[in-house]
Amino acid sequence: MKYAFPDNFWWGSASSALQTEGAREGETTWDYWFAREPNRFHNGVGPQQTSTFYQHWKMDIQLLKQLNHNSFRTSISWARLIPDGIGEVNPEAVDFYNQVIDELNEQGITPFITLFHFDMPMAMQEIGGWENRDVVDAYARYAQICFELFGDRVLHWFTFNEPIVPVEGGYLYDFHYPNVVDFRRAATVAYHTVLAHAQAVRAYRAGHYAGEIGIVLNLTPSYPRSQNPADVKAAHIADLMFNRSFLDPVLRGEYPADLVALLKSYDQLPACKPEDGFLIAEGKIDLLGVNYYQPRRVKCRDSAVNPQAPFMPEWFFDSYEMPGRKMNPYRGWEIYEPGIYDILVNLRDNYGNPRCFISENGMGVENEQRFIENGQINDRYRIEFISEHLAWLHKGISEGCNCLGYHMWTFIDNWSWCNAYKNRYGFIQLDLETQQRTIKKSGEWFAATALNNSFEKE
After folding, report:
1. What residues make up the domain containing 220?
2. pTM to 2 decimals?
3. Which residues form the active site (predicted)?
4. Residue 421 gets which letter from DSSP?
5. Number of domains present in the structure of the chain
6. In what helix (H) or strand (E) does residue 212 lie, and over which residues does it extend?
7. Which range among 66-80, 177-191, 236-250, 413-427 shows the weakest confidence by mean pLDDT?
8. Is-catalytic flag, 360?
9. Which pLDDT band holds residue 394 (cuts at 50, 70, 90)?
10. Which of 73, 162, 281, 419 has the most CB atoms within 10 Å of its CB?
């Protein structure tokens, strides 16, 4: 069967400043944490050892061209552009980002630029990070500077990438700095992130720039174990906390009333100011990026909550391991292709069918050297993963969902937060010793799919 996509469909991939650039200038929370606890990072490999985009950007953009990308998302590093978060702009950073943006445009690759992809300047974290409203104001200033510097050539902006992740990692589950476990502080961080987003949107609108502004959310559909009311309620609460806590403010301009009521009943609401509601209402977006990797399967709790334990989302649900589920064993994540369709249908039916695109989808595999044939990684599993997801995406589009593109994570094997290079995600293999880049079979497949705006599948 042939799957053909709409004209002007965005074919591309996504990456981030911290995971690719290297040559760090301003210190981020990642640099600080790695210097103190290298044992928390896979094989002791920290954020200095990236895929060297800072040196090789021109070559890498040529590779994007070779993969027939018509669009590419990366981020600007706040810490590179304004090393202390609030002071002088670093002219070398301006030159670098100007060169990258100009080269992308020259090669016919539309730049999609994210303002914040997990890389808080350490100077901002030292005064409380997203817990401090002064940092919200500093971020809004940083965003405005980016719009002024690059807004004439960047027409697709994103305020945040996966803003729920710093909340989960830094303030609930101890997998990002500052390694806090405190729900109320987590809720404050999430709330202030929404305020920061809305301030950036307000600044963008005020500047009357030619492009559009959005946000990238990692949406994990919450599926109940059964239709038993207790399981359905558990899935609803998981959805409220992990999806709708950001989805509703950015698409509807307000929080779900039942989420507010739930947090209020447990005395976990962040401090709000009367004018915040007006600001959040102004933060409605033009374009939603959807990162989809895995579903969330939940059931009602089987055991009572320990009243001495910290208040956590898991007070309301347990995770459910569905028998027979398909797994990516290297990442420990379920592979469930229809989830991408369910997300689009939910957006169509419950959120007014916003303009959106798949901004990340990907499969990390360990020790891919096993699959080298004639000097090239034959990653058939990745081609199968992408084509299955694209088939469900195609179904959503054919049923009227307003999805405009598909970006894969990622174009080249890159450094991944605490996992370093354990799992490889790229269309292009990176040799860490030589920095040599070699296109994998999946890269060739994607280049052909993008060129033809379609693919064939049995």
Report:
1. 2-456
2. 0.97
3. 360
4. T
5. 1
6. strand 212-218
7. 413-427
8. yes
9. very high
10. 73
